[in-house]
Amino acid sequence: MSPTRQRELTGRHVLFIMLAFFGVIIAVNLTNAFLASRSWTGTVAENTHVASRQFNAKTAEARAQAALGWTARLSIADGKISYQLIDAAGKPVPAKTATANLRRPTHVSEDQSLTLTLQPDGALSAPVNLRDGLWTVEILTEAGLERPYRDARRLTLRNGASQ
Fold first, then answer.
1. For residue 145, what are the domain limits?
2. 99 plus 24 within the same structural domain
3. Fewer CB within 10 Å of terminal CB in the chain, N or C?
């Protein structure tokens, strides 16, 4: 039997272990910081003071809009976004145009703004090309009101269709 040689833990070994440990931590943090800075601007509101002053007016508008009793049908499928407003009596609301602002919560570079136009079936629609995932959709419809009818929602796309 050959005698086993004992390895000694030297200061050099401890130094290499510490450098490797902290090197991995620093590399992971730098990677996360790089990916975060490329995917989100960090901007929620351009001017928070102005946004807070507009809050009461926007709340009043939302209450007035809810009092109309309108519902909305939104679908995204087959490369097309389709939108229609239905009044409280169940009849389509006459609207000629709408603007759809489609935003990714984490990828500003994929944001889109589309103009929806009236189709023969009474719906407003436009061609769209969106990747699967989470989207925030805000639609402003000119429906004969003092201000555009605003509909905002989050939706998930799977296989190119809204869920």
1. 70-162
2. no
3. N
